[in-house]
Design brief:
The protein has helices spanning about 15-25, 70-80, 90-95, 100-120, 155-175, 195-210, 230-240, 260-270, 325-330, 340-360, and strands spanning about 5-10, 30-35, 60, 80-85, 125-135, 180-185, 185-190, 215-220, 225, 230, 250, 255-260, 270-275, 285-290, 300-305. By secondary structure, the protein is an alpha/beta fold. Strands 3-2-1-4-5-6-11 form a seven-stranded parallel β-sheet, sandwiched between helices. Strand 13 and strand 14 form a beta hairpin. The chain binds NADPH dihydro-nicotinamide-adenine-dinucleotide phosphate and guanosine-5'-diphosphate-rhamnose (GDR). NADPH dihydro-nicotinamide-adenine-dinucleotide phosphate (NDP) binds near residues 8, 88 and 187.
């Protein structure tokens, strides 16, 4: 019998990689997607199967984490062996703008899923993965952070995720549900949302190198993050639900890097060296050398500025995780390091921007059938 998985947040970065991973493991995969006025399935279009096909193993359903009735009905219909709750308003900075919605989706949304499984009497059948986050650690209490490090959330997003974390633990203890938290540190990829800092940088660097943009404006360049590749992290989500016991797990690379150094690494991929000058909001970066003939800018070109609009009311300064438990008990180790990640992201974005560039330069003229 095929195992059945239900993924919330299927249209997001992790949802897309996890769906692909589970399909390769011969699962029947069901995804919950929100209704939107434009198609938002770019990341999973390659997995789509025509509803008229027989032997389908990939299904999409409309749904929303703020709608209990919808979640109860879907879980009843799909009868999943595993639920991966990845849906969330996942942008820390935006959570300061829409705190109530964030609490409703990221906090109460998790409760709605757990409660649906309980109401339907599926406690013994269905295992649940909750997408917890290193943002729970917030203000530094301990370095590196482990499963026992105290939480100190620093944003409406992190506070909502803290509720989700503890309600998952509570349902495990109260009702014997196989419900687990993966406390995942930042993980990125070529399909990362465009407004998270890594993707904002790799997109901008590609555009700057191709002459499509002059510079990029960023916020806090001193922030340090433990960045891994999303492909490594979705594998661990699955491993967590295959374990003998329901537990909570830190997933991280164990290395931390500043935003500033990530910028340098991204520019290095197009053969450019940078120098940073100034401090705080006055800090800027300039090109000091171009080693790749394809990407040339005049030496001294200013390519990075700081804009305080991107500062957060409360910041998380330093994240670095210790994933020893995952390594020792489940044998998980990341296969890609930060250098591999930056390479993969830059390769993706240079290709994407080149395509955009060519289309703008004249490709559309040949497609103008209506004039
Ligand atoms: P994304 O922002 O790429 O994806 C979030 C997904 O949730 C999207 O499919 C989005 O739909 C969906 N969603 C948002 N609100 C709702 C709602 N109310 N009802 C149903 N679906 C909703 O996030 P990631 O893939 O990067 O992250 C996946 C999960 O892991 C999130 O919960 C995130 O908070 C958490 N996490 C992420 C980390 C990371 O570094 N990536 C680290 C630790 C935790 P739509 O496409 O329509 O917007
Ligand atoms: P984060 O990711 O908040 O860690 O949450 P993000 O990439 O948004 O920020 C990382 C750090 O970079 C600094 N920064 C900027 N951030 C953005 N977005 N834009 C900028 O211009 C900019 N300049 C500097 C930020 O201040 C921050 O310190 C991500 C999300 O995926 C969460 O859902 C997840 O839970 C955590 O990672 C782990």
């Amino acid at each position: 019998m095929k195992k059945i998985a239900l993924i919330t947040g299927i249209t997001g970065q992790d949802g897309a990689y996890l769906a692909e991973f589970l399909l390769n493991k011969n699962y029947e995969v069901h995804g919950v997607k929100r209704r939107s006025s434009l198609l938002n399935t770019d990341r999973i279009d390659h997995l789509y199967q025509d509803p008229h096909e027989t032997n389908r193993n990939f299904f999409l359903h409309y749904g929303d984490l703020t709608d209990s009735t919808n979640l109860i009905r879907l879980i009843k219909e799909v009868q999943p062996d595993e639920i991966y709750n990845l849906a969330a308003m996942s942008h820390v900075s935006v959570s300061f703008e829409i705190p109530e919605y964030t609490g409703n989706t990221d906090g109460l949304g998790t409760l709605r899923i757990l409660e649906a499984v309980r109401l339907l009497g599926m406690e013994k059948k269905t295992r649940i993965y909750q997408a917890s986050t290193s943002e729970l650690y917030g203000k530094v209490q301990e370095v590196p952070q482990t499963e026992t490090t105290p939480f100190y959330p620093r944003s409406p997003y992190a506070v909502a995720k803290m509720y989700a974390y503890w309600i998952t633990v509570n349902y495990r203890e109260a009702y014997n549900l196989f419900a687990c938290n993966g406390i995942l540190f930042n993980h990125e990829s070529p399909i990362r949302g465009e407004t998270f800092v890594t993707r904002k940088i790799t997109r901008a660097v590609s555009r700057i190198a191709l002459g499509m943009q002059d510079k990029v404006y960023l916020g806090n360049l001193d922030a340090k993050r433990d960045w891994g590749h999303a492909k490594d992290y979705v594998r661990m989500m699955w491993m967590i639900l295959q374990a003998d016991e329901a537990e909570d797990w830190v997933i991280a690379t164990g290395k931390t890097t500043t935003v500033r150094d990530f910028i340098k690494m991204a520019f290095a991929e197009v053969g450019m060296d940078l120098e940073f000058k100034g401090v705080g909001v006055e800090e800027k970066a300039f090109v000091t050398a171009c080693h790749n003939d394809k990407f040339q800018l005049p030496i001294g070109t200013e390519v990075v500025n700081v804009d305080p609009k991107y500062f957060r009311p409360t910041e998380v300064d330093l994240l670095i995780g210790d994933a020893s438990k995952a390594k020792n008990k489940l044998g998980w180790v990341p296969q890609m390091d930060l250098q591999d990640l930056v390479k993969d992201m830059m390769k993706g974005d240079v290709k994407l921007m080149q395509k955009e560039h060519y289309l703008k330069e004249g490709g559309h003229k040949t497609l103008n059938y209506f004039e």
